[in-house]
Q: What sequence folds into this?
């Protein structure tokens, strides 16, 4: 992506087949222009770009927040929403672009500076202090002082009660410890804090994720209150009903770019879904003719006390089975259970008709099921060990003889897989820590593949890697299934799911929501199933 | 980032510049050992006598035997602070057996088995209950030595059979003591185990990234348990040697040895954070520790100053490799 990988126009075919492929964002811009603006925007971000090593998180995005209005920020996982929030709260510095408040350009070099400009964020998990009281949390850092410079506790408590009362949250005791409050009341305290610093811009990052329906209703009343107070609100949520319920405007991000914005009343649900997913294909997925064979892996009734329930599916020889869902749908947890890393409470796993109960990753590797984890640095590579030792680690039983290492075997194994995956490295004795993300991912895939498994489970195999490495990984997957391997691919990237899978399992809240044949399947259906929107 | 425009064929390894060998930690240890040796031989006319040099080795062989196993344990990211207490408990048990009339082979078996049992106990607490080893072994350090104190009080066990004296006082050939021969043999075995077997490779993998190691099919708990057992076993063997050398058991036997063992391991270049180290380094460090303490002894430096010296050395060797690697990184990247 660095150096601007330009995609030839002819490759920019719209993936969401059957949809209006001429979907243009200009129409959306027109809508925004026509919208009657009672006043200018409170906060304007324009031309914001931000890159991390190997990944372009945001490219030339813009966002405006208006006083007394709620703007919903919509996008898939990895679209760049959290990066933007971190830029707005002074945690990240943008590489390019300007931020202005009430038309005045500002810089936000630190969280403190953002705070000073009246920007405050309420996160999914509140970042308040459990062992302090409600009043202390509200006034931490700007407590009223006495003449002697000590904290004026009486005034602080009184002001805390006042703030809570104006919000209609008088039921919260200002002297209660925060840890004794429920999550909804903690949110109220966070909002009270925003009120007490006279915050003018409030960012709510998936605030409803951990709330019950009733608590969500209360939160919405609060949002209405903030609107009436003239705050400019940014509301991030995956749930469409919520967005339609309280947002006035929307901005859609896709792959780190702003692809549409406008007034929510003018935009239909499917229109927004299309903007989220209807991306141009940025590279061609390998053409392959699926020769699906007999079932290899059969899972049924697999359950876990908290993470997933009654999971059942079949994987066939030579098949790529895609697993799609929102983050937290339980996909990785299911895969880790199948590969012996976590335990299940009930259910059966059968490999080639034989029931197996893997109690550790070692057991499942011996049986022929390998799990290539999502978190490359934490679970995948062993940084500190050279490339060849990383690759041979799961295969040490084969490369060693009576427990003694045979380096020649290890090098041969490493060489054959790194060359097939087109690894870029100066030598096989190089520490994996010195490689880029994409090349580390190749090592991760190579090391588990080298065990010669029957089933390989790839969890987000191309997350956060550059386009070239992505193509190498996809090409390699096609090669694997052609050789008769069976692949499960957990992915949150729709083009990847649609471009690679033979069938797609969609999970929602720990259960299988639906299984689709990937024939004429469109992205919209998947997103709706994953989010629980009736089609 | 640092990807080179790749040759399709990736070489197994690149020739390392000579400077990387010259600036290796082991090379530094050799230089230090030679320097101390030279200083000692100038400081005392008795130092260069073969018997004098032979006596020198008794200063470190018992601790160094434990250091071999401790090196693997620390590389895997764990630690055992109870080794000196294991020596005390094993020695006490041997003393009790002597009172009951046990002969040499039984004594040796008891010493070794008590050590192994204590190590297994530590290992179970760490791997089964998932407790941090530093806390577990501080606890068992008090526990094991506490048992020795309860049994012995201010008494001492004596009356070990004369054939038992060989392990700590005997010589296998000329000036080569049984202790030294045993240490050198064990060093070769541990070198092979750590650097030439798949077991050793897994120890390095665990120390660098236990989660990825587990995901890669390494049975992390089992390997750590074995390492605790090995450390306990070596402490048991050391207990046999010390008890044999002293010919008596007091509950305060081997007091403070755990710090010297750990100092030896860290001085040998094993990363206190786990994941890196070599047996060659640990062996060199053992000789250096022996040379220094013996040299100070020749100069009539009192024991209390020696303990200050060990404390300082521990701090320096923990800080120095970190600084050293930082310098190397700037030099070679």
A:
């Amino acid at each position: 992506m660095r150096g601007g990988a330009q995609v030839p126009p002819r490759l920019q075919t719209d993936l969401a087949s059957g949809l209006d492929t001429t979907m243009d964002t200009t129409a959306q811009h027109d809508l925004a222009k026509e919208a009657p603006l009672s006043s200018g925007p409170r906060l304007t971000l324009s031309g914001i770009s931000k890159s991390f090593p190997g990944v372009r998180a945001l490219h030339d995005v813009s966002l405006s927040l208006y006083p007394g209005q709620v703007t919903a920020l919509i996008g898939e996982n990895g679209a760049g929403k959290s990066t933007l929030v971190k830029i707005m709260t002074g945690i990240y510095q943008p590489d390019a672009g300007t931020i202005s408040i009430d038309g005045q350009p500002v810089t936000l070099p630190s969280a403190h500076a953002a705070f000073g400009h009246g920007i405050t964020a309420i996160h999914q998990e509140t970042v308040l202090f459990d062992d302090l009281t409600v009043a202390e949390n509200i006034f931490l850092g700007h407590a009223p002082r006495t003449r002697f410079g000590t904290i004026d506790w009486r005034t602080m408590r009184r002001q805390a009660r006042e703030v809570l009362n104006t919000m209609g949250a008088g039921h919260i005791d200002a002297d209660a410890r925060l840890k004794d409050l429920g999550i909804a009341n903690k949110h109220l305290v966070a909002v009270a804090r925003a009120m007490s610093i006279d915050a003018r811009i409030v960012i709510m990052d998936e605030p409803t994720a951990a709330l019950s329906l009733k608590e969500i209703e209360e939160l919405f009343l609060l949002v209405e209150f903030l609107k009436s107070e003239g705050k400019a609100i940014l509301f991030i949520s995956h749930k469409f009903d919520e967005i339609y319920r309280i947002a006035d405007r929307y901005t859609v991000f896709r792959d780190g770019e702003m692809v549409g914005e406008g007034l929510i009343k003018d935009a239909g649900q499917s229109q927004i879904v299309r903007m989220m997913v209807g991306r141009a294909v940025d590279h061609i997925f390998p053409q392959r003719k699926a020769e699906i064979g007999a079932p290899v892996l059969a899972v049924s009734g697999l359950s876990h006390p908290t993470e997933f329930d009654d999971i059942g599916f079949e994987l066939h020889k030579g098949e790529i089975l895609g697993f799609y869902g929102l983050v937290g749908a339980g996909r990785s947890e299911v895969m880790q259970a199948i590969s012996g890393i976590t335990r299940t409470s009930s259910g059966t796993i059968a490999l080639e008709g034989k029931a197996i109960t893997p109690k550790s990753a070692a057991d499942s590797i011996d049986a022929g099921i390998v799990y290539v984890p999502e978190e490359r640095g934490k679970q995948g590579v062993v940084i500190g060990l050279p490339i060849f030792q990383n690759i041979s680690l799961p295969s040490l039983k084969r490369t060693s003889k009576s427990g003694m290492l045979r380096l020649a075997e290890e090098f041969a194994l490493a060489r054959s897989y790194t060359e097939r995956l087109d690894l870029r490295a100066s030598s096989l004795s190089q520490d994996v820590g010195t490689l880029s993300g994409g090349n580390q991912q190749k090592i991760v895939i190579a090391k588990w593949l080298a065990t010669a498994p029957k089933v390989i489970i790839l969890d987000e195999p191309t997350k956060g890697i550059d386009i070239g490495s992505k193509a190498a990984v996809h090409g390699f997957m096609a090669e694997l299934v052609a050789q008769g391997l069976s692949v499960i691919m957990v992915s949150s990237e729709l083009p990847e799911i649609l471009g690679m899978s033979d069938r797609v399992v969609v999970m929602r809240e720990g259960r299988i929501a639906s299984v689709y044949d990937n024939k004429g399947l469109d992205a919209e259906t998947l997103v709706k199933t994953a989010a629980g929107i009736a089609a | 980032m640092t990807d080179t425009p790749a040759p399709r064929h990736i070489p197994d390894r690149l020739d390392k510049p000579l400077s990387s060998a010259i600036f290796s930690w082991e090379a530094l240890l050799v230089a230090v050992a030679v320097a101390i040796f030279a200083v000692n031989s100038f400081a005392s006319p008795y130092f260069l006598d073969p018997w004098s040099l032979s006596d020198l080795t008794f200063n470190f062989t018992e601790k160094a035997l434990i250091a071999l196993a401790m090196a693997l344990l620390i590389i895997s990211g764990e630690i055992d602070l109870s080794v000196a207490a294991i020596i005390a408990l094993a020695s006490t048990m041997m003393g009790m057996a002597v009172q009951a009339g046990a002969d040499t082979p039984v004594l040796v078996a008891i010493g070794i088995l008590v050590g192994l049992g204590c190590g297994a106990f530590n290992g179970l607490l760490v791997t089964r209950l998932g407790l941090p080893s530093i806390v577990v072994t501080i606890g068992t350090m008090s526990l094991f030595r506490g048992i020795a104190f309860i049994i012995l009080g201010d008494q001492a066990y004596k009356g070990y059979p004369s054939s038992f004296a060989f392990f700590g006082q005997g010589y296998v050939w000329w000036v080569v003591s049984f202790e030294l021969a045993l240490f050198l043999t064990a060093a070769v075995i541990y070198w092979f185990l750590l650097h030439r077997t798949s077991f050793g490779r897994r120890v390095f993998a665990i120390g660098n990234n236990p989660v990825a190691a587990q995901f890669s099919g390494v049975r992390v708990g089992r390997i750590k348990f074995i390492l605790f057992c090995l450390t306990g076993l070596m402490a048991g063997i050391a207990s046999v040697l010390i008890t044999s050398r002293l010919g008596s058991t007091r509950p305060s036997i081997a007091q403070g040895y755990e710090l010297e063992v750990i100092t030896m391991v860290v001085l040998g270049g094993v990363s206190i954070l786990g994941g890196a180290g070599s047996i060659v380094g640990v062996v060199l460090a053992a000789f250096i520790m022996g040379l220094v303490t013996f040299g100070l002894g020749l100069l009539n430096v009192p024991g209390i100053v020696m303990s200050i010296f060990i404390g300082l050395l521990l701090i320096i060797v923990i800080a120095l490799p970190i600084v050293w690697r930082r310098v190397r990184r700037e030099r070679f990247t």
User: Anything to note?
Assistant: The first strand of chain A starts at residue 43 and ends at 52. Confidence is low (pLDDT under 50) at residues 1-37 of chain A. Chain A touches chain B through 50 residues (CB under 8 Å).
